[in-house]
Amino acid sequence: MTRCLELARLAAGRTAPNPLVGCVILNQDVVVGEGFHPGAGQPHAEVFALAQAGAKAQDSTLYVNLEPCNHTGRTPPCTEAILQAGVKRVVVGMVDPDPRVSGSGIQRLRQAGIDVVVGVEESACQRLNEAFVQRVTRQRPLGLLKYAMTLDGKIAATGGHSAWVTGPTARAAVHQLRATCDAVVVGGNTVRQDNPRLTSHGHGHNPRRVVMSRGLDLPAQAHLWNVEVAPTLVFTTSAADPRRHQTLVDQGVEVIVLPDLRPKAVTQDLYAQGCAALLWECGGQLAAQALQDEVIDKLWAFVAPKLVGGPTAPTPIGELGIRHMDKALAIERQTWRILGEDLLLEGYLRGLSHQS
Questions:
Q1: Which of 46, 70, 135, 148 is the most exposed place for a label (fewest CB within 10 A)?
Q2: 65 Cβ partners below 8 Å, 6+ apart?
Q3: What is the pTM of this model?
């Protein structure tokens, strides 16, 4: 099952709205087939593994981190392929939360006389596909807020200079994180101040780059407008300058006009486009809006051993209107990692609705 997860990760950032799935087939304790799902519309992991196994799939054990599908979507049901191959035993990491599958794949295999074991390395399987699970169960992408701050809570110096808060090891971790996400979201101020690339810097898939800007007061030239590297979407309003709108379109940037430019509306639009994991790498004001709109589920907070000081130096989160400490947003299931000289806190957020 651990190997299934390794195989599944090979397609990280590329499968949405589908899950990450890997498959291993053993016959007499020898691996005879492996495969992973490379992306929506392409064959599932089981199909690749069965093709590699060929006749050796007969009387074998098939391991897969997610329940095999039992419906016809863009591809035929995997349960039928497993049955036709003569597999004797199937080991499943987790039940598929998709109501089109949820338990029916396991039931179909058992009805056909196959021995099915469910729940092997289940927590690891759930973590791998937490964005897919959220997309299916809550009908919105998993939202991750990432920021890097100094020990005194600043994301930039008083003058706005922010390169670099953290060291190279922490920055490489961010590049790897981007490679697992479908889109990275920033505000117009981040484009003006930092001129970011928002790519994975060679660590894998480059996510879609997303900018939120009410008036399109954006630089004429920016790294994000180079859409040969990765696509860029700009969300704006009908009040934006039409000439700037056209300039972006002429450079290959997709511009989407929303009646209400809020993180919730942007999240809903990206969900409709098939996104499962959104990474928010924005400044404090937009981060606060995203938290208030309850589209943030997970936090990646880097802390660097530096002091900047100054009451006007920017902080990671803008005004949330919290006046009492007992109303502070709680971070659960935390893990700490040391990356070079920096610390990384990963954790899950309790929504604002749970704080009342």
A1: 70
A2: 1, 4, 5, 8, 20, 21, 22, 92, 93, 94, 121, 125, 128, 129
A3: 0.93
